[in-house]
Amino acid sequence: MRFGPFALEEADGAIAAHSIRLPGIDLRKGAVLDAACLAALARAGVTSLTAARLEAGDVPEDRAAAEIAARLGGEGIQADAAFTGRVNLRATEAGVLVVDSAGVDALNAVDEAVTLATLPAFRPVVAGEMVGTVKIIPFAVEGSVHRRALAAARPMLSVAPYRVRRVAMISTRLPGLADKVVAKTLRVTAERLHAAGAGIEHHAEITHDAGAVADAVREAIARSAEMVLIFGASAIADRRDVVPAGIVAAGGELLHFGMPVDPGNLLLVAQCGAVPVLGAPGCARSPRDNGFDRVLHRLLAGLAIDRSTIAGMGVGGLLMEIATRPQPREAREPDGTARIAAVVLAAGRGTRMGGPNKLASTLDGLPLVRRAVEAALASQAAPVIVVTGHEPERVHDALAGLDVRFVHNPAYAEGISTSLRAGIGAVPEKSDGAIVLLGDMPRVSAGLIDRLVAALAPAAGRLVAVPVREGRRGNPVVWARRLFPELITLSGDVGARHLIVANAEALVDVPVEDDEAFVDVDTTDALEREELHRIAERADTDGEQALDAMRAEDA
């Protein structure tokens, strides 16, 4: 591949190495230069530009990335279409990600032009989540490099789907252990299992005694439990302690006690026949990520756990800086509340509206986007950042006179994730987080925004706040700054819903009683329905005011 400066007269068919924006010219990096583009550049006074031209034997970046990625996916993995030399690999089902680390290293060692990045091995994933990405660095690779990369490529990523569905839980009791502790542990554990499609089919509360533990384990297995979780009233201190002694008395085998993960050191892994049995550490009573999760999810996916597996968890096992753990030096207002910015996404083309700029369409006399932004301005969230993309001047006009900050997303056509990245990137450093609003949701009120903001508590591990009604999650959503790195890794026309699932232990549900968190305006019919809704609302308000006046006169 030839790369470097090209005179315009020799650049026809070459690939632009850099973006060029001039009046009437919007040349994107990676675009193939044609006669019309080169003529426009010449008229603008450009005489040369940096470009790349493929030579015989070179393999274009998209083809190279697609062919390599096609060989990497095992069960539960699919590859997206190639774009700009990149192919994202995604999970097709929920489970635990299995990675051939040696294979990944070998592929990355082939040549600097070929890269593969993945999520950590054995991380729980959900359907649709990006688990890896192949990126070709230059615009093309030499044929020899391509052939060596293909030779090194093999199935390196797979998803072990969750298999265990029926779980039994045993809670031992000692005087002084509050009922609410057992109740919370039951609730937290049920939520942990729910994410993997499993449930607690049987729960036994017993005395803290080895004989009682043995009887409870036997009963759980007799009830067809596929896994048994034991929460002792007192932490396991030794292999001869009450819980392990009870497991052995039930005919079980102790596989490993202790683990090099903190929190989670006092985990016990055992087995009764084919049924895994876990003696939970005290930290497993909390929804926060801990060593218990490292083993639980693998067992739920049917992956084997032995002494060497646990012994190998030490690197990365110090979980002091995980997102869900309180961090030092959290930013705070003087009254101790979190400082939250508002990000209003107003970049989309609104193609379902059938022609007019959706966000500039009027609803009850005001542009749709202005209603969303005014609600944000009336709340305690600040500053208010508006992300523009399609027809930005129309959005600017619709918001004239409002105290907002604009950030433009030139890549808006690539999907909502690009606008989310642009907005999150503009949040001030001092902010603890951001509430992400959609510009086409006219019923979202300042009151709802304030309730969501108030629910966020980063120092307490509450990192995501979502409005919920009858089990359905809506918008807007508040995100703590600690989750920003995950938000900005999103790609394509994919929102952040899977991140909510992935951070379920840090989620706060904020109940709502009406439709304000669920109504968006995508079509002209939806806009007409909203107009009728507001007319009906005014009629109800006028009627109530008239009744109040009549009551006042009667009094």
From TrEMBL:
Record keyword Magnesium present: yes
Annotated MoaB/Mog domain residues: 168-301
Signal sequence, renumbered to the chain: none
The keyword Magnesium is assigned to this record: yes
InterPro entries per UniProt: Bifunc_Mopterin-bd, MoaB/Mog-like_dom_sf, MoaB/Mog_dom, MobA-like_NTP_Trfase, Nucleotide-diphossugar_trans
Sorted UniProt keywords: Magnesium
Protein name stated in the entry: Molybdopterin-binding/glycosyltransferase family 2 protein
Species of origin: Ancylobacter crimeensis
